[in-house]
Write a structure and sequence with these properties.
The chain has five helices and seven strands; from the N terminus they run H-H-E-E-E-E-E-H-H-E-H-E. With about 160 residues, the chain is α/β, with parallel strands linked by helices. Strands 6-5-7 form a three-stranded parallel beta sheet. The longest helix has 24 residues.
Length: about 160
């Protein structure tokens, strides 16, 4: 056997490893998609069945969450206060407590997770390790920043959007 024949057999097309990697990724994604569909591991909200919303009196804001809402959805509970905020704080700010208002959409709201697992609740827990803070969750599923900005003035030390 000639040395040149041996080297030519050892050389492979450099695209073959890339094709194998791409096919492996596509197979993994297709398998994951199949598992999610077969075991129904996703949540598709039925907004008509959710009686969470009320018509907003504020121009430019289509809806607000209902006050004193108590329900479960996803993996947790949903409760709103007298103002329709996903919040357990009293309206009057206690002396010596800093309030932070979080505005946003379903991510801020904590859509599909328990009230205690939303990012405003986690932020409050972390901040209270070194002070007195209340983080108010003013997130509403389906909101845009433009709609949320029209909801009025809040008395908070900081507003997070």
């Amino acid at each position: 056997m000639d040395l040149t024949e041996d080297r030519s057999r050892q050389r492979t097309n450099p695209l073959i490893p890339l094709v194998i990697i791409a096919l492996s990724i596509l197979f993994a994604l297709a398998l994951t998609e199949g598992i999610v569909r077969v075991f129904k591991l996703w949540a598709i909200p039925d907004y008509l069945a959710m009686d969470w919303y009320r018509k907003s009196p504020i121009p430019g804001v289509p809806y607000l969450l209902k006050p004193k809402l108590r329900t479960t959805w996803g993996i947790g509970s949903i409760a709103t206060d007298d103002f329709g905020l996903r919040n357990n704080h009293v309206a009057a700010k206690p002396v010596g407590v800093y309030r932070i208002l979080t505005l946003g959409d379903s991510v801020t709201f904590g859509y599909g997770v328990d009230q205690t697992q939303s990012f405003p609740a986690e932020l409050e827990r972390l901040l209270n390790q070194s002070g007195k803070y209340e983080v108010i969750n003013a997130g509403v599923p389906g909101y845009s920043l433009a709609a949320r900005g029209k909801t009025g003035h809040f008395h908070a030390a900081m507003q997070m959007i």
